[in-house]
TrEMBL record:
Family annotation (PROSITE patterns): FHA_DOMAIN
Membrane-spanning intervals of the chain: 235-253
Start and end residues of each FHA domain: 145-194
InterPro entries named in the record: FHA_dom, SMAD_FHA_dom_sf, YscD_cytoplasmic_dom
Organism of derivation: Thermomonas carbonis
Name of the protein described by the UniProt record: FHA domain-containing protein
């Protein structure tokens, strides 16, 4: 019996399972990438074969099945509901055309049985944290996003080195406009401090030392285009100048 996954809250489109594995997590190379807070880079994996559908939960990751925590490798049954950091996913038969399977429980509770089904929009860009406190997390970038320490920030980084309103990212065509909002410790693209500049797929955007890579879903993941910050090259030249000056002074004295 073929099975599919239905997001009960509408966080994603229905996903038909095929023989093999299906990974779910915040990393963009997962079969089902999720950007919600609390989702691990690899949150869980579904193994599909003659044995049916089995769930593999990595050590230390919290996953619920029918509101009960599970770990290791367990078998799943039709209509089981997975809970991943607040995201609820129901396992149903692909032939199930009931309102629960088509719309999800949240839509039923909102009385949307006669609503037109809208295909979820795949974000054009995503930010993947490559260092710091958010390492491994990915965040879809669909509209203008404010980065900062404030509670209302779209991307909140609760660190003292991050200003309350640190920067703003705005998708614009095939690029993202990055604006520093007068932050104390700066906004950087590929190691260069900016006030207003554009970033593209593969570029590294940093807010102080919190580094993110800008990615386009569906395109190959590339190494961040990171260069050394300007300040990091000063000390070798300064040291060389001091040594040269000392040598010249010694020669003049002699």
């Amino acid at each position: 019996m073929a099975m599919k996954l239905v997001f009960q809250g509408g966080e994603g489109p229905q996903y038909t399972l095929h023989d093999g594995s299906c990974s779910i997590g915040s990393a963009l190379d997962n079969d089902i990438p999720l950007g919600q807070e609390g989702i691990e880079p690899l949150h869980c994996e579904l193994l599909v074969g003659s044995h049916g559908v089995r769930l593999h939960v990595p050590a230390g990751v919290r996953v619920l099945v029918n509101d009960r925590p599970v770990d290791g490798l367990i078998a799943l049954r039709e209509n089981d509901v997975l809970g991943l950091a607040g995201v609820r996913i129901r396992l149903v038969d692909v032939g199930d055309q009931s309102p629960r399977a088509l719309l999800g429980q949240a839509s039923i509770e909102r009385g949307e049985l006669n609503a037109t089904m809208v295909r979820p929009v795949i974000p054009k860009f995503a930010l993947r944290a490559v260092s710091g406190s958010m390492f491994g997390r990915s965040l879809p970038l669909q509209a203008s996003l404010t980065v900062g320490r404030a509670e209302e920030a779209g991307l909140r980084i609760p660190l003292d080195c991050i200003s309350r309103q640190h920067a703003r990212l705005t998708p614009a065509g095939n690029e993202v406009l990055v604006e520093d909002l007068g932050s104390a410790n700066g906004t950087w693209i590929n190691g260069k401090r900016i006030t207003r500049a554009s970033a593209a797929h593969g570029d590294e955007i940093s807010f102080d030392k919190e580094r993110f890579q800008l990615l386009v879903p569906g395109q190959p993941v590339v190494m961040p285009k990171r260069s050394r910050r300007v300040g990091s090259t000063r000390w070798p030249w300064l040291l060389a100048a001091l040594l040269a000056g000392a040598a010249l002074a010694t020669w003049l004295i002699l």
